[in-house]
Design a protein that fits this description.
This protein is mainly alpha-helical. It folds into two domains: about 10-65, Orthogonal Bundle (Arc Repressor Mutant, subunit A), CATH 1.10.10.10; about 80-140, Orthogonal Bundle (Arc Repressor Mutant, subunit A), CATH 1.10.10. It contains six helices and two strands, in the order H-H-H-E-E-H-H-H. It has helices at about 10-20, 30-35, 40-55, 70-90, 100-105, 110-120, and strands spanning about 55-60, 65. A two-stranded antiparallel ribbon has the order 1-2. Strand 1 and strand 2 (about 65) form a beta hairpin. Helix 1 (about 10-20) packs across helix 2 (about 30-35).
């Protein structure tokens, strides 16, 4: 799983699971994921089974799901890219925050570009929404 490129859909699920953990849930509920991603519960279950086969989550039917260590590392990169994309739009490009654009950018922001944005902005710790930005290799 280490060098493999993930689909945008998989990245969206990993991001949602990171947010669920960030909000204090030890296990993300299927219904929460479905609402968060605006998809059906059966679609969530189908994707979770796929993610489990890839070693990214532990899925406990009827209880919920949590990220594995590998899943956490991937989700952290995605969250970092998303939150830095928000700052790229607002602080560097001086644009109004557009979540659709930020979400689109996160999927295409390489780790090198994320580090460059982070360094340019003097290693910000919070996104425009006040959420923590995970540290990257560039951060002191």
């Amino acid at each position: 799983m280490s060098g493999q490129q993930l689909s945008e859909s998989i990245e969206d699920y990993l991001e949602a699971l990171w947010i669920s953990e960030e909000e204090g849930a030890s296990l993300a509920k299927i219904s929460w994921i479905a609402r968060h991603l605006d998809v059906s519960s059966p679609s969530v279950v189908e994707m979770l089974k796929k993610l489990e086969k890839q070693g990214l989550v532990v899925y406990e039917p009827r209880d919920g799901v949590r990220l594995t260590e590998t899943g956490k590392k991937k989700a952290e990169q995605i969250i970092r890219s998303h939150r830095l994309a928000e700052l790229l739009l607002t602080d560097i490009l001086k644009m109004k925050l557009d979540m659709k654009t930020a979400c689109g950018l996160e999927h295409h922001l390489s780790e090198d570009v994320a580090d460059a944005v982070c360094t340019y902005l003097n290693h910000p710790r919070l996104c425009p929404h006040g959420n923590k930005i995970p540290k990257g290799n560039c951060c002191p």
